[in-house]
Specification:
By secondary structure, this protein is an all-alpha fold. It has helices spanning 22-38, 41-61, 71-86, 90-96, 101-108, 116-126, 130-145, 148-154, 157-162. The protein has a single domain (41-162), classed as lambda repressor-like DNA-binding domains (434 Repressor (Amino-terminal Domain)), CATH 1.10.260.
Length: 163
């Protein structure tokens, strides 16, 4: 390859990106909206759940969390999608997960931490690994506890031996 030629690699293809006109952008947006309107509600739900799964994975991998987002908040988003797209209520989901609406609300409102059994049931419905739900919960607990270094020093083997 001739090194004197400048290649635009910003788009990853090595070709210059074309600028779209406003009309072309509008046509693409209209096409997407039309296609979405014709999409089956179950497929829309699957897409929404997949988006929530990606958000959960991103949250888990992000080292620079400025605001804690609980597992309950992610589940709440999924419940809203079930209601909006398939008219499945929180009560119906609670029954499906073999719990009560009141009990489910306690998980959603941060009054309880998710147990493994319920995590498995919810994860199955949302098509996510239960481990993902539990890992988010553990990450949040570690953030709440605070600086890990304080514990490392205070409860180190050296401190035990010194005492």
């Amino acid at each position: 390859m001739d090194s004197s030629k400048k290649v635009n690699t910003k788009n990853g293809l090595g070709i210059k990106p074309k600028k779209w006109t406003k009309e072309h952008s509008k046509n693409v947006q209209d096409f997407i909206k039309q296609h979405y309107a014709q999409t089956d509600p179950v497929e829309k739900l699957e897409n929404r759940l997949f988006a929530i799964k990606l958000q959960m994975q991103d949250y888990l991998q992000n080292e620079d969390i400025t605001e804690i987002k609980t597992v309950g908040e992610f589940i709440q988003e999924a419940i809203a999608a079930f209601k909006e797209l398939l008219q499945i209520s929180k009560k119906a989901l609670a029954e499906h997960w073999e719990t009560t609406t009141a009990n489910l609300s306690k998980y959603l409102n941060k009054e309880r931490v998710l147990n493994v059994e319920l995590a498995l049931k919810i994860a199955s419905t949302l098509d996510v690994p239960a481990q993902l739900l539990l890992d988010i919960q553990i990450k949040n607990e570690l953030i709440k506890v605070g600086n890990k270094k304080d514990y490392e020093k205070e409860f180190s083997l050296e401190e035990l031996i010194r005492a």
